[in-house]
């Protein structure tokens, strides 16, 4: 099952889109069964790095390996959960969506049915197995995506802001559920998010990135707080403030580079009370400069 095998290794990775250097000299090792969150300002390169692990983009320098295998393209052993639930096949029921991967891999009917039942139960969708994606709520579609990925028994599950489009309440439920599922399966998960609180709730390690272009790994924060986690406990709140300062500095750097900043450090934005002060980033943004939605979320 997931988590028993291949760790991921990102070695000296540079990623370009034409002349644009999106990521430069990224290095990251992810252990089997680890839950790693990539956190950083909007547009810094989190998805690009995740896509390199998925095999959707290939580095111009360096390499990504999964176990002993160099990543040269997408593979079922690296399952991806996208923010958009359009990733589900709309003409298939939930059950058929989840069964699709095992069917393609030639898994026999009985074994396939057992796997589908297991993962549907795990994500809490057994009762909706015969519905089509259009008949599901946003949260249910994300559950279905996760079940579909898990049914392929991947070495690593890659999640690109999977809860980014959900309302706050559903998002919270999904975070708690994912924490439980991760503990149940021992899956290796790499999870991209803007949301500092989400990273603290979920990660074993939180990896921050510098603002692009030429984004890189900035800091790695071990996060070994007991699970399930509570953002209001003092250790979580302290980590939250540290991360907000880290990311705020990158946002401020971007604004300065764009000539939009008045010289103050973005890390000072919002309420220093931490998670309890959520929603305190002013509508006008940091130092009066309007922020991208993602950066506003990151600084809450
Ligand atoms: N296919 C592409 N072609 C050209 N540029 C790209 C491509 N994909 C990403 N980029 C650029 O690479 C940089 C990093 O983008 P990426 O989507 O990885 O950022 P991100 O941190 O995931 O952002 P967000 O959190 O807002 O989704 C951005 O400047 C983006 O415009």
Automatic annotation (TrEMBL):
ATP-binding in keyword set: yes
Keywords for this protein: ATP-binding, Nucleotide-binding, Transport
Chain spans, region Disordered: 259-300
GO molecular function: ATP binding
Biased composition (Low complexity): 270-285
Domain ABC transporter: 8-236
Transport in keyword set: yes
Record-linked CDD domains: ABC_NrtD_SsuB_transporters
Protein name: ABC transporter ATP-binding protein
């Amino acid at each position: 099952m997931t988590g028993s095998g291949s760790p991921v290794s990102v070695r000296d990775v540079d990623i370009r889109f034409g002349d644009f250097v999106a990521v430069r000299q990224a290095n990251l090792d992810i252990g089997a069964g680890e839950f790693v969150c990539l956190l950083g300002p909007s547009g810094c390169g989190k998805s690009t790095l995740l896509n390199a692990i998925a095999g959707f983009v290939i580095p111009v320098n360096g390499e990504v390996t999964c176990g002993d295998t160099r990543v040269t393209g997408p593979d079922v052993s690296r399952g991806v959960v996208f923010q958009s639930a359009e990733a589900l096949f709309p003409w298939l029921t939930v059950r058929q969506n989840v069964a699709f991967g095992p069917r393609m891999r030639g898994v026999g009917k009985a074994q396939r049915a057992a796997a589908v039942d297991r993962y549907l139960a795990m994500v809490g969708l057994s009762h909706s197995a015969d519905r089509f994606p259009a008949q599901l709520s946003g949260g249910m579609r994300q559950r279905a995506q996760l079940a579909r990925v898990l049914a392929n028994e991947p070495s690593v599950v890659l999640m690109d802001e999977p809860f980014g489009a959900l309302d706050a309440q559903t998002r919270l439920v999904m975070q708690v559920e994912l924490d439980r599922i991760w503990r149940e399966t021992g899956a290796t998960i790499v999870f991209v998010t803007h949301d500092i609180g989400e990273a603290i709730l979920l990660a074993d390690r939180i990896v921050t990135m510098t603002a692009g272009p030429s984004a890189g790994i900035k800091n790695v924060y071990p996060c070994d707080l007991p699970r399930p986690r509570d953002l209001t406990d003092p250790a979580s709140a302290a980590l939250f403030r540290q991360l907000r300062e880290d990311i705020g500095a990158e946002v401020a750097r971007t604004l300065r580079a764009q000539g939009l900043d008045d010289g103050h450090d973005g890390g000072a934005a919002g309420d220093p009370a931490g998670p309890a002060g959520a929603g305190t980033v002013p509508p006008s943004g940091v130092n009066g400069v309007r922020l991208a939605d993602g950066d506003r979320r990151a600084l809450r």
